[in-house]
Amino acid sequence: MHTADPLHVRLLRLLRDEGALSRAELADRLEMPRPRLLAELERLVALGYVAEAGKAASRGGRRSTLVELRPQLRFAAVDLGASSIDVEVVNGRLEPIAAYAEAADIRSGPKAILQRVNELLYKARTDGVYERLDAVGIGVPGPVSFRDGVPVSPPIMPGWDRFPVRELVTREHGCPAVVDNDVNIMAIGERHGGVAHSVNDFLFVKIGTGIGCGIYLSGEVYRGTDGCAGDIGHIQVDPHGPICSCGNAGCLEALFSGAALAKEAMAAARSGTSPALAERLAAQGTVTALDVSAGAGEGDVTCIQLIREGGRRVGSVLAGLVSFTNPSMIVIGGGLAQLGHILLAEIRSVVYRRSLPLATGNLPVVLSELGPRAGVAGAAVLASDLAFGEAA
Question: Which of 4, 129, 159, 304 could make a disulfide contact with 109, Cβ separation 3.0–4.6 Å?
């Protein structure tokens, strides 16, 4: 918690993260005089954010009344991937009450995708999950102007440039909405309830269809002036490499990502250099990044090489970032995190070898704990922070 946060935001976050607390505990934790706390609680009860929750255990003398977030609070968390939609409706404690996941192509455009999101949310309402939403958090797989709530020139999202996502969602559901890029929401999720719990300086690297990096500095997401900080997938690692979706040559993403790995796997399967992949190609008619993972697990030399080569490339970019930002942790997430320890070992070895010893002396490089839920978990945190800020 930051002392800069208004009192009501700190109070509501405390109830969100800790559950029901007595008035006495709240006064202690927030270091504030009892009368001021009671006045604030009364205001938040009237606004519908807080409710009484029975009596606390006695601390000697009269038993204090417990206070909790109103059980009916509901936030919607939406994580849009290049090929998927994940939606959760959560309560004030950010516990999922309903979850929906399905395949979808982000290239089908904002109207079709957002209409589907609305249908899933209305299904939740029909099923009695909520009466009304208090806020919606959305992550999208491309650069976002956080201030304006719109995607900006996203390379893999044709038709989404400057589309008023936040405005339309707010209007549709009658509550505030917040839009961020998918990697930032994953980083927020991981910090709130994952392996980076309460770590103030860390990098969250998403390796999936594309590659991106969420940057936490001094306990805050660092988004940059225009919201595109952390777009490490478009750092050039080989000037003679393949052309990337952004139009430049040899970007990290063009050399190692879900799409790039599937392409290399296909070549290895066709040429027969990888028996495991050739076998899968014959059986399925195609091969994916996950087939490379399975092949590596069976000891297929080419599959292991492909993963190690990718890990080396990611590691070389991260080594520069480590020397630059000096984080206390690096978390690897996204679909290709399923490549697991071969990938992790390679990234670690390059980062440790190439960064300054002082920066890596105590630098864990670990896999995401939340896995595929990191995105919706972070979108829920953002939605709740937005709603709490509006309780002024």
Answer: 159
